[in-house]
């Protein structure tokens, strides 16, 4: 799926891991992603979280899409920050799932949470072929 994701690749999003309902993706904040307040535009942070979410919910095999998502911005990201999005499945029921994604940046003293994202998934096909 990620090989065909032109939007994520264009933004430099790299998939680090995707297995068993979990995924980790990274993205460096570039000058094109900074808004008028000199911080990363929230839409780019959302897109990174959404990409990690998509990879986590598709790690099981069936074609799965977003049914909805919410994000809470906690701290600003800035030009040059390397953001990490860590997605994890919370529950699956029938053809539905709930996933949480934490977007953070590594800092010298640990990491700073940038945003918390909750995605709701829906399986649309029995297999990915």
Automatic annotation (TrEMBL):
**Alphabetical UniProt keywords:** Hydrolase
Organism per entry: Prauserella oleivorans
Pfam families assigned to the protein according to its UniProt record, in alphabetical order: 4HBT
The Gene Ontology terms for molecular function here are: hydrolase activity
Q: Origin, by domain of life?
A: Bacteria
Gene name per UniProt: paaI
Residue ranges constituting the Thioesterase domain according to the UniProt record = 39-108
Q: What is this protein called?
A: Hydroxyphenylacetyl-CoA thioesterase PaaI
- EC no.? 3.1.2.-
């Amino acid at each position: 799926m990620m090989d065909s994701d032109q939007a994520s690749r264009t933004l430099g999003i790299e998939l680090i891991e995707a297995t068993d309902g979990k995924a980790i993706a990274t993205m460096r904040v570039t000058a094109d992603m900074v808004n008028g307040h000199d911080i990363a535009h929230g839409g780019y942070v959302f897109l990174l979280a959404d990409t990690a979410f998509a990879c986590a919910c598709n790690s099981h095999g069936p074609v799965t899409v977003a049914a909805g998502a919410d994000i809470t911005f906690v701290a600003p990201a800035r030009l040059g920050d390397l953001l990490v999005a860590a997605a994890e499945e919370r529950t699956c029921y029938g053809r539905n799932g709930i996933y949480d994604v934490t977007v953070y940046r590594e800092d010298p003293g640990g990491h700073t949470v940038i945003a918390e994202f909750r995605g709701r998934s829906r399986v649309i096909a029995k297999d990915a072929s």
